[in-house]
Amino acid sequence: MSEFNYQNNQLHLENCNLSDIAKQVGTPVYVYSKKQILDNFNAYKESFDQYLSDTSYTICYACKANSNLHVLKIMADAGAGADIVSGGELTRVLRAGIPANKVVYSGVGKSRSELEQALKAGIFQINVESKEELSDLSNIASEIGINASVALRVNPDVDAKTHEKITTGKKENKFGIEFDNAYDTYQHAVSLPAITPVGLTMHIGSQLTDLAPFKNAFLRMAELVTDLRDAGCTVDHIDLGGGIGVIYEDSDKPVSIAEYTKLVQEIIAPLGCHIIIEPGRSITGNAGALLTDVMYVKKGNSRQFAILNAAMNDLARPALYDAYHPIWPCHKSEQGNLEKYDIVGPVCETGDRFSLNEDMQPLKSGDLLALMVSGAYGAVMSSTYNTRPLVPEVLVDGNEWKIIRRKWDVEDMLALENFD
Ligand SMILES: *Cc1c(COP(=O)(O)O)cnc(C)c1O
């Protein structure tokens, strides 16, 4: 069940009227439900506890999906670990109270200072994506005298059948070590100073709606673990990445967590490794929306445009991936008649549009809309293009809410460019 609900035709999040929040904070503004975030996290936890009761596991929230400190604090209090992809994210997750020994670090290009930071913090494992990174890490770890726990990211060469810009597990993608080289690279890692290979990791893509790619990848990973053990290597951790999708359109049928967990039980659990998963989108995606005002309704001869005060810089996914976010009115009209609108932002780019030919109740200037399912890869991807300040973020909890990122103004931005 969604925490977004209409009460007397007014869109609420949990028990807060979103029109009140918009009035007090201004728009555009991101709003998130604490309860939905926790429910999404607990769905994984309960499923793992049900199907994998004898297996040790860590849910490392992929914090690039939404890394607001207050969101991370919710995850920390719920017992989650974190999957990070930069030194900045490491600083964030530690600040929010996620223990270093539950942090895994992914990414194809980590800098020297980021690797040093991770080693000094004592994180659980560094997910290494190339032979070159292995040798750099070995040098850095030797110099500072801290041993590195390493999982090798394997590219299992399966097609996740998702959008081409978020598929990561085909051999032509930049991610991970090619499957055919993984066995040799693992043995090479064993021989390197200050490196302890602890296991394998994979992440084949995002917004997966089909279980088969997971199954194929899991089978390949299990085969590799067995081969490595036969060669005398220790393989204690297996990290399965993230990727379970959310519902953006009614036709979306994301992989079910129960089906996913059953696959893990069948194929991965028998290996006896500590299992890590890194869900991102499925934790925060449907917990958030971007509230925006209709500035103008512009009627042409053949189309009418609703011009919002939110733009591609605030929510980049439509421009970046042709993604669709459902658009809900915050005050639902009693009449049932619908009209067609092109829903667009004010930025000087044709790609700055949220939906074409959207059926909406009649709109007018000043109407408040919600761009739904924006809790993941929303605020974190925003930019200040067109010198538009980053928008505030609000966390709802029952009938209370608070600002968790304050509104920027233009002076905040210009202050970084002072030249006297
Ligand atoms: C982005 C990413 C994730 C999270 O993916 P979702 O589709 O949001 O669950 C997990 N692991 C890695 C390595 C990633 O890059």
Q: Which ions, cofactors or small ligands are bound in this entry?
A: pyridoxal-5'-phosphate
Query: What is the helical fraction, as a range of percent?
Result: 25-40%
Beta-strand share of residues: 25-35%
Q: What coarse outline follows from CA principal-axis ratios?
A: globular
**Mean of residue pLDDT values:** 96
Number of contiguous helices? 12
What's the main sheet like?
A: 9 strands, mixed
Low-confidence stretches: none
Question: By helix and strand content, what is the structural category?
Answer: alpha/beta
- N-to-C terminal Cα separation, in Å? 55 Å
Keywords summarizing the entry:
420 residues; 9-stranded mixed β-sheet; 12 helices; 30% helix; 25% strand; globular; binds pyridoxal-5'-phosphate
Question: SSE layout and pairings?
Answer:
Blueprint: E1 4-7, E2 10-13, E3 16-17, H1 18-25, E4 29-33, H2 34-51, E5 57-62, H3 69-78, E6 81-84, H4 87-95, E7 103-105, H5 112-121, E8 125-128, H6 131-144, E9 148-155, E10 177-178, H7 179-191, E11 195-201, H8 212-230, E12 237-239, H9 257-268, E13 274-277, H10 281-284, E14 288-299, E15 304-308, H11 317-321, E16 327-329, E17 339-344, E18 353-360, E19 368-371, E20 393-397, E21 400-405, H12 410-414
Helix pairs in contact: 2-3, 2-9, 5-6, 8-9
